[in-house]
Structures are given as structure tokens and as C-alpha cells.
């Protein structure tokens, strides 16, 4: 199994990505690290534990609390998109047993203990990952591979015309990460997720028809985002984060990817968080692999397979 850490702002599809880490027999999820992003920090923590519980794995994977705001800017929420991020599900505070060690320390320590072995799937703003490179100059080298959900491949943003949410919230962190020397693979919002990882009505019906506790969990967790997506003309639920986990765990689902130079705008008024993804531009050396096309049906089958897993919520 692939040893990995998932760094997450847990709401909606972050939960589905966690399910991939928790239920795919090819995954060995060593830790969940939490970063400020989608919804209130405490609520995100609860959403992560709700996901552990739905997967029947409560108490089995350490959850470390990380940075509570971006490196230099105030936090911005996506509660208008995700509601509370888990469809109103609740859980006893007593079940939220988090680790004492800060997420940045845990990332640095675990990568240093296993140099060249651990992959990190980063599906929220990149604050924790950037701070880990600030704390330990060897962090990028110690991580085997970093998988980032963020940016757009010179296409549409989703929080502004120019920017995707994760890069917009902490552009300084995103820029830091692309300059840090990671072996990094990027799963961008547009065109990849927006066109190839959307589950429309037929697929959502197929998932609901599974009738498992996990398919109910999925439907509930994705309900608010589905409503939001439809309000902005997207015909279904979007799955950027679980696609990012799948790119690591099921590389056979990637049809094409290319080497790009990726840089992130931190200064622009209208372009804050814009990801410049270039290839073949004189003087710009490639620093990232950008996924361009996936097997969309295969990805849906993968998620459906995970949600078919018979679990006893713990
Ligand atoms: C990203 O932003 C969040 O709303 C999602 O969880 C995803 O990581 C998409 O732009
Ligand atoms: Ca996310």
C-alpha cells in the first residue's frame, strides 16, 4: 500500500478524498492534517472525524490540527458553497480526539522519519505544506511526492474569474510550494475537474441506489455543494479532492499529464491566486506535472466502488 498523509480543509469532496485514503486497500493513510479553508476550523475537524466514523475507522488514524489562517492574509470561508461541509451531520465532542502535535510538526517529523517514502495529498489551501518547508528546508526533499488540488490550467477560476479557491485563499503559500523543489503533481480545477470529475444526475442516482451507509453519507455530504454548483451552471457535484487522491492511488486513471512551469500570482488585484501554467516558454523550467485528462468513467467507478464498501460506522 502507498503510505500517505492527507492535508485537508474537510468539507464535501475532502470527505470523499479521505474515504479513498481510508478504504482503498492500496492506501496506507498515516495521518490527516487539518488546514484553514472551506468552513470554520472546528467544523472541519468534526467533518474529518465524521468521515473516519463513516468509514468505520475512528481512532485508527491520527488527526493533527494545523494552521488556522493563511500565511499573511485573513481566512476566507467557502461556507456559501459547502454549508457546514457535512450535510448537518453531528458527532459527540468526546469522539474528536486530536493529536497534541501541530500538523506542521507532524508533516516535518513523519517525512524526516521516512525520507523518500511518504506521499502528501494536499486538498486545501497550501498553508501547512508551505510552513513545513519554512520550518524544515529538507521537507520537500523528504516527501516522495506531493499531489496538489489547486489552480486552473489557464482556464476559469471558481472564486474569482482568475483564481481557484485553494490558491486564492493562500497565494503566498501556493507560490512558496511551487518554489520549494517538491516532486509535485497538480490536479487543476479547470479544465480537468470542471469537465471530467462532475457527477450528474444519472451518476448520483447510481450512487444513491447502492443503499450503503457510505452512499447515504456521500449524498448527505454533497447536498449543499450540489445545490450551489447547479446555481452556477455546473450540472452535478464536483470532485477535485477525491480526484487528486485517485491520481496518487490509481495512476492508471490518468490519461495525459505534462510538465509545466507553475507559478502563482500574489500581487494582482483581479488576479490574486491566479496560477500561471506554462510550457515551452523560454526561461521557465518545468517544476510540476499537471494532469490534463483522466478516465472520467474509471474515476466514477472508483468512487462508486469505495462507496459500495460495507462498513459499520464506528
Ligand atoms: C477546492 O476548494 C474547495 O472548496 C474544495 O474542497 C476543493 O479543494 C476547489 O476549488
Ligand atoms: Ca478541499
From TrEMBL:
Pfam families (UniProt xref): IU_nuc_hydro
Coiled-coil zones: none
Entry's Gene Ontology molecular function annotations: hydrolase activity
Stored InterPro entries: Inosine/uridine_hydrolase_dom (IPR001910), IUNH (IPR023186), Ribo_hydro-like (IPR036452)
Keyword Iron applies: no
Gene3D superfamilies tied to this protein: Ribonucleoside hydrolase-like
Keywords assigned: Glycosidase, Hydrolase
Domain Inosine/uridine-preferring nucleoside hydrolase: 4-300
SUPFAM superfamilies cross-referenced by the UniProt entry: Nucleoside hydrolase
Protein name per the record: Nucleoside hydrolase
The species this protein was found in: Nocardiopsis suaedae
Organism lineage string: Bacteria, Bacillati, Actinomycetota, Actinomycetes, Streptosporangiales
Amino acid at each position: 500500500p502507498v503510505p500517505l498523509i492527507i492535508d485537508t480543509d474537510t468539507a464535501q469532496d475532502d470527505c470523499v478524498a479521505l474515504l479513498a485514503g481510508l478504504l482503498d486497500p492500496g492506501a496506507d493513510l498515516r495521518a490527516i492534517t487539518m488546514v484553514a479553508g472551506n468552513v470554520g476550523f472546528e467544523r472541519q475537524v468534526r467533518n474529518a472525524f465524521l468521515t473516519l466514523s463513516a468509514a468505520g475507522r475512528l481512532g485508527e488514524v491520527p488527526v493533527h490540527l494545523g494552521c488556522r489562517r493563511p500565511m499573511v492574509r485573513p481566512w476566507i470561508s467557502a461556507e456559501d458553497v459547502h454549508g457546514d461541509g457535512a450535510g448537518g451531520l453531528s458527532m459527540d465532542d468526546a469522539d474528536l480526539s486530536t493529536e497534541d502535535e501541530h500538523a506542521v510538526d507532524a508533516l516535518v517529523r513523519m517525512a524526516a522519519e521516512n525520507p523518500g517514502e511518504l506521499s502528501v495529498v494536499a486538498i486545501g489551501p497550501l498553508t501547512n505544506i508551505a510552513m513545513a518547508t519554512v520550518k524544515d528546508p529538507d521537507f520537500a526533499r523528504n516527501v516522495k511526492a506531493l499531489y496538489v488540488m489547486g489552480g486552473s490550467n489557464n482556464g476559469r477560476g471558481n472564486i474569482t474569474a482568475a483564481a481557484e479557491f485553494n490558491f486564492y485563499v493562500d497565494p503566498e503559500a501556493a507560490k512558496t510550494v511551487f518554489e520549494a523543489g517538491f516532486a509535485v503533481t497538480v490536479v487543476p480545477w479547470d479544465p480537468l475537474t470542471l469537465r471530467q470529475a462532475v457527477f450528474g444526475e444519472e451518476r448520483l442516482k447510481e450512487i444513491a441506489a447502492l443503499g450503503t451507509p457510505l452512499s447515504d453519507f456521500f449524498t448527505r455530504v454533497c447536498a449543499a455543494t450540489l445545490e450551489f454548483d447547479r446555481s452556477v451552471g455546473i450540472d452535478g457535484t464536483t470532485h477535485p479532492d477525491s480526484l487528486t487522491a485517485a491520481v496518487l492511488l490509481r495512476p492508471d486513471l490518468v490519461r495525459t499529464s505534462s510538465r509545466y512551469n507553475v507559478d502563482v500570482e500574489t500581487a494582482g488585484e483581479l488576479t490574486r491566486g491566479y496560477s500561471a501554467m506554462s510550457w515551452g516558454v523560454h526561461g521557465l523550467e518545468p517544476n510540476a506535472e499537471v494532469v490534463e485528462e483522466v478516465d472520467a468513467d474509471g474515476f466514477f467507478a472508483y468512487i462508486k466502488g469505495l462507496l459500495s464498501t460495507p462498513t459499520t460506522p464506528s
